[in-house]
Amino acid sequence: MECTVSWTGAAGTRSPMGFVAETGSGHVLTMDGAPDEAKPENGGRNQAPRPMETLLAGTGGCTAYDVVLILKRGRHKVERCSVKLTSERAEKDPKVFTKIHMHFTVAGKGIPEAAVARAVALSHETYCSATIMLGKTAEITTSFELLET
């Protein structure tokens, strides 16, 4: 896996702290920094997600992918799955994630609650590389709700 991140914030550009990531699979993701009112030339323009937000989003995508795949492999009729991540970060540099809560909402027909609990646990404990990696600095908790469609 590879990714090239390039600064796009040269003088005269939209944001002095803008970046573009080009992934090995050929996709592009833009990122920007938070505005710095004290030194505007050092801050972003809030025109794209922050790098740490993209890390959190990627973690959500990684674990949601696992949950859907595990449920589908169990022949469950999954129609929707989302995960809302809330986090806390350290106050001092490096401002690592210290707490992350993942709340899954799974919708489908006749999915047993135990199957969703198992899928979330397997992702959290075994399959989701991002969750397991971030678990080195953050306390990660999960919850879920199951909706019948």
From TrEMBL:
SUPFAM superfamilies: OsmC-like. This is OsmC family protein. Pfam families: OsmC. Residues 33-53 are annotated as: Disordered.
